[in-house]
Here is the input.
Amino acid sequence: MTAEDNDIIAALRSLRTQNVVLTVALFILIGHQTFELVRGRAALMTARAAQEQTVQQSVQMRRQLDALANGTARLAAEGNSNAKTVLEDFRRQGVALGIQAVQP
Here is the structure.
């Protein structure tokens, strides 16, 4: 072997070492990112589970509010002036009520 061949072999070994280090670093980076994503997903699932009861309570409250609004709208359609005043105040304040069409 000549000196030139030894230089080429040394360069290839150095390149191989660099490739191994780069590959290991890449796998460590991918592993870390995967771990962080899994941990973040678990945190989001925990937060969602913690909010589930509050969401269910808000849905129930919205149904009750809609029932009251529909009853008030029915009274207003029947001529109750207080019910009309309440509905006008709600509309003026921008309160969105899920009032169904009331048949007079």
